[in-house]
Amino acid sequence: METIHIQIPSITENIRIIESFIDNAKDKFSLTDDIYGNIMIAVTESVNNAIVHGNGCDKSKNVSLSLSLNDNILKFTIKDEGIGFDYSNLPDPTLPENIDKPSGRGIYLMKHLCDEVNFSENGRIVELSFYMN
Questions:
Q1: Cα(72)–Cα(31) distance, integer angstroms
Q2: Side-chain-facing half-sphere of 44: CA atoms under 13 Å
Q3: How far apart are CA 125 and CA 21, in angstroms?
Q4: Would you identify the CATH topology of the domain 2-131?
Q5: pTM score of the predicted model
Q6: Which of 24, 43, 72, 87 has CA atoms 20 to 30 A from the CA of 98?
Q7: pLDDT tens digits along 53-107
Q8: For residue range 6-26, what is the model confidence (pLDDT) as tens digits?
């Protein structure tokens, strides 16, 4: 199993670094455009959540991202240094009272774009899995 790791300070402009990381993964693992698009949206959304909500845009706190390929499952693990959140009790962004809110769709998107989404450590770690076959 191969693992690639990157760590960035919690500054939203660093999302560009994550996009480059995903671009490199596309080439390295010969990702199709469909899975690449899903990965790009889900992973950048997750890292952005870690920066903004997890670490509160505190640039002294880092977000780490690792990527592993094992048994045809490409897994991205995103970890922040925040206090976590209750990921089991999130408002549904498709309900009428939430439809016009400018935020609150990230985890919903992740769950629809990934084959598996798993949270641990009170939501400070999220694993996004994509099946490669």
A1: 12
A2: 18
A3: 19
A4: Heat Shock Protein 90 (3.30.565)
A5: 0.91
A6: 43
A7: 999 999 999 999 999 999 999 999 999 999 998 888 777 767 778 777 766 677 8
A8: 999 999 999 999 999 999 999
Task: Give the separation between CA 114 and CA 99, rounded to whole angstroms.
Answer: 22
CB 82 within 8 A of CB 56: yes
Q: Residue 59 corresponds to which amino acid?
A: K
CA-to-CA dists, residue 52 to 19, 68, 111, angstroms: 17, 25, 19
Query: pLDDT by residue (tens digit) across 103-121?
Result: 667 788 899 999 999 999 9
Would you list the domain boundaries of the chain? 2-131
- pLDDT reported for residue 2: 77
**Hey, is 19 helix, strand or coil?**
helix
Q: Closest Cα to residue 18, out of 70, 82, 79, 64?
A: 64
Look up tokens 């690449």; give the residue: 36
